Backbone:
């Protein structure tokens, strides 16, 4: 029998270590059946927070609540609410079926029920019929799916995932992200997911919390947190330009005119005139040109910018341009850099649609 999704809350949680690191979480909530991704640099406290949220470790202060009830690692029944998957699968030297059944045997589940649940869970992770295969003969992706099955077979109400895909090669990792995302959403398990990968967080999570020095510096819907960084540090961590601040000048029929310094940008949305907002444009949504190409009449934002920075971003290049104090970035290919002849100090055109401008209300404490 499946269990109903539960809500997870961390209230006034603090944990201090001898090395001087201190975790401090005044309040953090994971909605029932949703996935919260924890992002942040190494040493930010992501895994520590995960261990406390998953009832694997007790905080020095504060409490972990599940559906409003305070829970503790010392309570065996509370621990049964939770399952975890880590970066390494840690499979035992046995068959796939025996690995998936391991936790059920410890809980003294009846043998026939074990066989049924193992078979059903292997179907969920795409490994139907793998029961008798040796765990030692599995590929990296298969082994990680077995680790996920070993957690899911317990029918947990809370699932803790600590960088489960980070050791996989890029192609396999991208495929597994989509598979994990589909599994988590179909099962409706309240999940906390630690990752260093921004794209992975966007694919898998409903909400994202970014951590720094043991604290959550921003938390919210995934598109908002990634699309419109809260501050300069967050923008730098995400590898994008700092967010812009502006005021809505007018709003009609779903189109807003937003003044940012001396520049007016057009954006989709319906905030009222006079409202202060933060906005950002993802570099991949910006077209760079020296002569505006045909077929761009629908592009509402066209700016002549001075190139202030040109830097390699993997196989692409990031072009940063400035106009009247407004700084934006565009992502273009190496071939485009050569074709356009772009260099620092040049004046080029940036073009982007109104729908590409992500806008949120300015927070009072920013």
Residues:
């Amino acid at each position: 029998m499946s269990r109903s999704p539960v809500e997870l809350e961390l209230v006034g949680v603090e944990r201090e270590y001898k090395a001087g690191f201190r975790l401090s979480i005044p309040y953090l909530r994971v909605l029932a059946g949703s996935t919260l991704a924890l992002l942040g640099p190494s040493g930010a406290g992501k895994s520590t927070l995960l261990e406390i949220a998953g009832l694997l470790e007790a905080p020095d202060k504060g409490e972990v609540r599940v559906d409003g009830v305070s829970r503790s690692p010392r309570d065996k029944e509370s621990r049964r609410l939770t399952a975890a998957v880590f970066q390494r699968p840690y499979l035992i030297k046995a068959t796939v079926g025996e690995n998936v059944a391991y936790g059920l045997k410890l809980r003294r589940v009846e043998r026939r029920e074990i066989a049924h649940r193992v078979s059903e869970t292997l179907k969920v992770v795409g490994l139907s019929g793998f029961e008798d295969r040796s765990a030692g003969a599995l590929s990296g992706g298969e082994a990680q799916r077995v680790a996920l099955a070993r957690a899911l077979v317990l029918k947990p109400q809370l699932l803790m995932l600590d960088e489960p895909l980070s050791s996989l090669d890029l192609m396999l990792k991208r495929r597994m992200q989509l598979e994990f995302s589909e599994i988590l959403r179909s099962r409706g398990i309240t999940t906390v997911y630690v990752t260093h990968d921004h794209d992975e967080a966007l694919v898998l999570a409903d909400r994202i919390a970014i951590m720094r020095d043991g604290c959550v510096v921003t938390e919210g819907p995934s598109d908002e947190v990634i699309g419109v960084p809260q501050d300069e540090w967050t923008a730098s961590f995400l590898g994008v330009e700092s967010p812009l601040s502006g005021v809505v000048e007018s709003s009609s029929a779903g189109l807003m005119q937003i003044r940012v310094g001396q520049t007016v940008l057009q954006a989709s949305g319906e905030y009222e005139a006079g409202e202060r907002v933060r906005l950002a444009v993802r570099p991949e949504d910006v077209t760079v040109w020296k002569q505006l190409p045909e077929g761009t009449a629908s592009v509402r934002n066209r700016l002549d910018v001075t190139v202030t920075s040109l830097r390699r971003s993997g196989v692409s290049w990031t072009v940063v341009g400035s106009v009247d104090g407004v700084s934006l970035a565009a992502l273009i290919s190496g071939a485009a850099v050569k074709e356009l002849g772009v260099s620092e100090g040049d004046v080029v055109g940036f073009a982007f649609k109104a729908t590409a401008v992500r806008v949120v209300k300015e927070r009072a404490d920013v």
Remarks:
- The domain at 244-361 is CATH 2.40.50.100 (OB fold (Dihydrolipoamide Acetyltransferase, E2P)).
- The mean pLDDT is 91.
- The first strand starts at residue 8 and ends at 16.
